[in-house]
């Protein structure tokens, strides 16, 4: 059974809502552009079905603890053989329950709106027969870790009496089907409305709504649900697209309409088209408009950069209109936190444009980034430029270019082969097309394909010129890696190149942050100017010993750690919180955390597939000093929320409790325990000084396509691979990605 105490603790630390950004509005005292003038409703589809199995006790309980005071609990009503109404998301039961195990020979085939449909139907079982059926997660991309809680099917009366929701919304999807099986959904709904309070009843069937209109209390609103525009409505034999053109007719039996969100904001290839006039047209007919299909963990328009709040805002604020409510699997969107974190870009707005291009940088500035970053790489002819990696394959089309034969293997830098920045001149690099980063292609999540090759790269001098007079920026961050290799093997001094460019640009020292994972690089900058030095800890750690802290303080004033070093997790469930941030801050070291992305698969389940919940939990729950993100607009929206500065901060500004969600998982479903992350020691930090760079240029490698024998860490020469085989391997790797 469910651990109710754990769920309550989770809720108390989560107190957030989807008040969809009532706090983010430009003027909180103005009336909402809804039909009633009130804030839009939040309708929890099957409860919090984005996390728990749909229509289960925990799914219904959580929104009542953490969402709006008037949240509506949604129940898809199905009828059993003996006429009881149960809340279950589908007409057939097998996808989200254990019924196949209990009744292995129970599959039937019936006509549903004229279409032969196979499955296990509630109409074939009494409520008593279904009493042992367990409800499970039916969307396989969501966690099944709560399936061991033995959730029972709930009746409509169970939901109304056990949870006493402020609003109950019943959806009747297949009234005609039940009539064909000698069960009257009409009679059941009329009877239920006399036993329990029902706020809304929706259905995609005109005939059903018309049949109950005069038998339902005026306090209960009837809502006509539109399906896709080419589907046939069974009562009128018209398409839903045709009915959409006759809202006056809809008004004769309903007070509102429920439409898929693309009825309002159409999409073509996941890009938004101009908004329709549906909301204003419906409001003219005095019809409320509710929008559906809101899910944080599903692919939605690239225009939103995988930020669900940006999508909600587009339905309640943009264009001078607001829908009257949203139907969501995730009825929680935190509004604000009492904090002011520094927003640091990761390769500019690299979630929207190719990394480190002029477009990514301009977008980040427009989005409200505080610190713009430039990871400095060196070309063959010694030009420092901004690029996300020393390997050109990572963010360009070099593998499909005439330079593909320059692939080499350098184990000190990376496993396998690469085409490295120091193998091409700056003029040659400028001929390459940028390529947008797609870190989550395994989940079929792609970034802005329309601009996947847009923009051009900048030299460090061009980057500094772009940012120098931008008043909204607090500073720039210059990142340096592989300096020792470049100095020793390629006779290129990236540190001298950076110092020279900064001096020439006349940059204010106080606005420059120098970042590296190598203490030797930061020591090179120590004392030269008043630059702020940032030490990046690449490893996942659980703690830092005191002698290491003392050493870091000698060459840095800030530290970058990864998210797992703050909130460790196993199989995407948070297992607790470390003291890493507190330990660093106790030594007067600022702590920045990387990398925040909007794609839901990058976040632990505890954050409800919502990037704002994640940011809030790190800022408020862990008290970090800055977020490093590929989507600066999301972090900037978080900072600008209108709740900030209110005399009494809303309760929903609390962060998640890191290990509360995993407590709800029964032992058989618990993820395996993982060994704790190591402690950072002085040995991990201490490095020899950077080698000096001689004026003698490096000798060309044989044939111009492979490197001369490189030295491995133990000083032994490595065997150079065949140019042909390396090139083929590189091309095959790139083709595999496509």
TrEMBL record:
Domain of life of the source = Eukaryota
Pfam families annotated for this entry?
A: GDPD (PF03009)
Q: Which reaction does it catalyse?
A: a sn-glycero-3-phosphodiester + H2O = an alcohol + sn-glycerol 3-phosphate + H(+)
Region annotation Disordered: where it falls in the sequence: 676-714
One GO molecular-function annotation for this sequence?
glycerophosphodiester phosphodiesterase activity
Domain (GP-PDE): residue spans on this chain: 40-338, 341-639
- Under Enzyme Commission nomenclature, its number is 3.1.4.46
Q: Name one GO biological process term.
A: glycerol metabolic process
Keyword check for Glycoprotein:
yes
Alphabetized UniProt keyword annotations: Glycerol metabolism, Glycoprotein, Hydrolase, Signal
Recorded family membership: Belongs to the glycerophosphoryl diester phosphodiesterase family.
Q: Which PANTHER family match?
A: GLYCEROPHOSPHODIESTER PHOSPHODIESTERASE GDPD5-RELATED, GLYCEROPHOSPHORYL DIESTER PHOSPHODIESTERASE
- This protein is called glycerophosphodiester phosphodiesterase
Origin organism is Ziziphus jujuba var. spinosa
Q: What is the lineage of its organism?
A: Eukaryota, Viridiplantae, Streptophyta, Embryophyta, Tracheophyta
